[in-house]
User: What shape does this take?
Amino acid sequence: MEELYRHPPFDPRRLKPTELDPVVGPIDRAFGSNFRIETAEGWFVERRGLPDTGGDDLESRAFPSVVKAQRMGWFLEPRPLHRRLRRMVDSVGVVMLLTLLYLALAPGFDALNIPTFGTQSVRLGLLDYPLLGLIVVPLILLPLVLRLAVNVTDLRRQTHIMQDEALRLDIDVDHVNSEGSTSLTLKGQAAEHAVFASLQCGVLAPRRHHILNALNKHHGGQPPPGMTTALAGMEPAMGDGTGLGEESPMRRHDWPGDVYRRPMRLAAQGGWKAVIDRHVEVEAPHGPWPGTMYDALVRIHWEVVVACDHPTHGRLLHVTPVRAVWPKASIPLLTVNLTDGRAEHADPAPTR
Assistant: This one.
C-alpha cells in the first residue's frame, strides 16, 4: 500500500511534470480505497494497494492546522479589479523595457538623422531626466498605487467584519455525502443573508517535512525541484514549500483565515444552489470523489462555501470544513483542470 504524489508548485509553468519523480510514501492505515486524481499536464495524486471500495468510512482524524488557519470562517470575494491590475502590471513592465531600449538606441537614431520623441532632457532639481521617462514612470507606478489602494480597502472591510460580533453563520450537519446531494440547514444571524451554497472537494498540499522524509532528504539541505528553500518564519503547516508566491494579494495574522479563500490546485466543485429559508441542498462534485482523508502525503478535504449578500459588508463567502463519507462504489480515474494558484483568479459566486 502506497501513496504517490506529484503536486503542482505555485508556478507549474517552470517545470515539466513528466520529468519529475513522484513522491512515494507508505499508507499508514487501511482506510478508504484506491483512487487517482490527475491533470492533463501530468500532475497527480494516487493511492494504490487498497480495496477498490471503501464502504461507509468516515474520517476520524482532526482537521489539519492549515484548515483551521486558512480554510474556515469569513472571506471576501476577490474583486475583478485585482485581476485587471495584475495584467496591467505585466503590460507596463513591457512598456518600461521598450522605453529603456528606445532611449538606449536614441543616439544612433540621431546619428542617422532619424527624428526621435521624448529624448530631450528635463531638469528637475540638480539632475536631468529624459522627457519620455517622466511620462512612462507615472504610468508604471499607477497600477501599483491602485493595487495598494484596493488591498487597503479590502483590509478595512475585513476589519469591520471582525468587529461585527453578530455576524455568525453555522451549518447543522454531521457529515456530507460524496455522491448525490446533502440537505443543509444554516443557522446564525448571517444565514438570512445567504443566497447560494456549494460543496467543494480538493487535495490539500502535504506538509513540507512529509515530502522531505519520503524523498530521504535533509530538511536543511537542497530542496527537490519545485520546492523553495525554507524561509525563516515560514509556517511549516501551511503547505509544502512550493506556494511562496503571491497566493493571496493580502493576508492577516490576527484573524483565522486570510482575506481571500485560497484555492486547492486539484479540486472540483458542485454547482451553486440557491438558499431558501435557510435551507439548501448541495450537490457533490461529479465523480464520485474520495471521502475526507487526512494522511501524511495525501489529504482529501471537503468544505461548504456559502455566498452571502450582507446589507452592510457586501458580498461575503463563508467556508465550513465538513467530513464526507467515502463512496460505496469504486472511484474512477478523476481528471481535473489545474486551478490557478492565485486567490484573485477564482471564479465568483453567482448573483441573484
About this structure: Residues 82-162 form one domain.
